[in-house]
Design goal:
Length: 316
């Protein structure tokens, strides 16, 4: 569904800042990543989004293209970030069809609620593979193009490069591993790995002009992530524990993306932008999912009332 600009982008950014640029985004059909890409497309970029579900990915690509007349947005479905060869082929196709890869958003992730008791070894591995290996695969498949774009679009920080910015990657992470969170062991471990990956990319590829940063979204309303993490009837009371007093909006993640990818982010490298209304500072007081701590863990009950439920094979 075409969205009004106010749903995915603030008024502070200038149209055309990403003209002739291409953004490559895994997990691009998801609620958060599609807003990030839509904002980039609105401001001039063309886009290549990847996902596992063919219909959902192609439909989202068409939808995102409505953000700007003449925009080219390709939706590549049936792509699993756990398979490097598949990503490499897609990166090559992106460059063939759209001309370059200037920006990457590594957004594909897996999540569900499960205690360590409920989490089988294979369930843990699935999330590690999607988040950590998938992010690494995305990086490896796109780095040559990012480095090329960085070389073409250098800025000394005073004079903006006349051809704009390029050669930047954002890893979409989380905040749960800053303090730890019940029922999220698998994701906490995985996101800590993703953060380390981004930091090291900045160290090794910064000298070649590539900027690598993390956006760590907190509780963002109306997203698949929140549906998987919180019982909806609890979301109102949860919002009242967030220092900013409400859930975030996908637009607020998109704005952080534009900040990092545009001229405003030239000297921002190897860091994390947390967009969470201060929520992570309250983690220790509130598990944030409606499962009372520690009673739920001690009860041996199974998780119910959230999206992404599946009977785990784990038994200890
Ligand atoms: C316990 C579960 C489970 C659940 C799956 N498993 N769901 N165990 N509780 N709710 C177990 C399965 O039983 C199986 O283990 C293993 O995980 C793999 O499951 P599959 O379905 O075979 O794997 P796969 O198809 O690869 O699915 C990956 C997935 C799934 C991560 C498990 O949920 C998925 O595809 N998610 C993608 C979409 C998604 O998660 N979006 C949310 C992103 S939001 P056994 O032992 O039975 O073989 C996000 C926000 C993070 O990431 C930030 C938080 C703040």
């Amino acid at each position: 569904m075409p969205l009004p600009k106010s749903a995915y982008l603030s008024e502070v950014w200038k149209d055309g800042i990403f003209d002739n640029k291409v953004v490559f985004c895994t997990g691009g059909a998801g609620t958060i990543c599609s807003a990030q890409v839509r904002a980039m497309v609105h401001l001039g970029a063309n886009a290549y989004i990847l996902g596992r579900n063919v219909e959902k990915t192609e439909k989202m690509a068409k939808d995102i293209a409505t953000a700007r007349p003449g925009a080219k947005v390709i939706g590549a479905g049936n792509v699993d970030v756990r398979k490097f060869d598949s990503l490499k082929n897609e990166a090559e196709r992106c460059v063939r069809e759209l001309g370059s890869i200037d920006f990457v958003i590594a957004g594909a992730a897996g999540n569900f609620l499960a205690s360590i008791d409920q989490l089988s070894v294979n369930a843990f591995k699935s999330v590690m593979d999607i988040d950590v290996l998938g992010s690494y695969n995305t990086l490896k498949a796109t780095l040559p193009y990012l480095a090329e774009s960085a070389t073409k679009h250098k800025s000394d920080g005073l004079t903006p490069c006349p051809t704009g910015t390029g050669g930047r990657i954002i890893f979409v992470s989380a905040t749960i591993h800053y303090s730890g969170l019940p029922l999220q062991t698998h994701v906490s471990v995985a996101k800590a790995g993703v953060d380390s990956l981004s930091n090291n990319v900045a160290i090794e590829y910064g000298p070649r002009g590539v900027n690598s940063n993390i956006i760590a979204p907190g509780p963002i309303g109306e997203t698949e992530g929140m549906e998987r993490l919180a019982r909806m009837e609890d979301s109102q009371s949860y919002a009242s524990t967030i220092p900013s007093g409400r859930m975030g909006r996908v637009k607020e993640i998109a704005d952080a993306t534009i900040y990092l990818f545009s001229d405003s982010g030239n000297y921002v490298n190897g860091t994390t932008i947390v967009v969470d209304g201060g929520a992570w500072r309250m983690h220790s007081a509130n598990p944030g999912s409606g499962f009372k701590y520690p009673d739920f863990l001690l009860s041996g009950e199974e998780v119910t009332g959230v999206a992404g439920l599946k009977k785990s094979k784990s038994k200890i």
